[in-house]
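[audit] Reproducing an earlier prediction to check determinism. Same input, same settings, fresh worker. If the tokens differ from the archived copy the diff job will pick it up downstream; this log only records the rerun itself.
[audit] input (311 residues):
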Amino acid sequence: MDANNETAPSEFILLALSNLNERCFLFSGFMLITYLFTLMGNSLIIILVSLEPSLRTPMYFFLGNLSLLDICQTTTTIPQIIVHLISGRNVISYERCKMQLFFFILFVGAEMLLLAAMAYDRYVAICNPLRYNVVMNYKLCAQLVSASWFTSSLNATLHTIFTFHLPLCGINKINYFYCDIPPLIAISCGNISGNMTAMLAASPVMGFGPGMCIILSYFHIILRILKMRSSAGMRKAFSTCASHLTVVLLFFGNALFTYVRPVSSYSLSKDSMIALFNNILSPLLNPLIYTLRNKDVKRVLQKRMMKEFVF
């Protein structure tokens, strides 16, 4: 047998989909409903931010981009899972698997960096409000978003190359719902030290750096809020940060669980289901978190709905 054929299967079998058995149609219905709600919720935020002049501020500019990333992230995995479940064919080609891994890491990484930019935006708004419009100008906001996409694309390229460079020795069964780093490493039969080095090299930029930016931003925000004499001002500051902080905890909790663990601790049969629901949960809940807790968005939404209702 040719060595290349031995180390690079032409397709992968997604075992996690096979394990659902008779529950596949029920599960596919659940996935379809959550995906549609995710699309509708995040699309609504993008439309509101684009059309409403009062929402054309740095915070909502970042929020619109966050919603776009949530749509892209779920679209990378969920539609294909639904097709597999309905068709009963739980096979993904080698090239499609590689593309799915690249784009999934790209969107997840860009969202991580964007959340750090949003934390910095909240820091400037609360700790240096008089210079907010000067510091958080459109040029800086556009640069932060562009840097998030560009840096994450480099990170995704690095991890995709290192992951698919591993010899698979003819093994093509992945105990997961989609192509991701942990299950692909688990079926490799080569030395994964290069992958571990790549993860460590990327962690200061993609993990530790954004995490520290968020922690330091909220450290200074909390100190500033505690110094406020007005209880109304404290409540307003807390409400401004509550939505973002909730999203950060959801997102980083999932990222830490999935990627920042020793390979020996992976239990793919359990991790695949947890990772799948975590990746569904954050994009689904983000629009709800920002609309239910944000007075500006609720006000604009009510105004738009009333306008449509009247006319």
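[audit] rerun output stored. Observation attached for the diff report: Residues 94-127 form the longest helix (34 residues).
[audit] end
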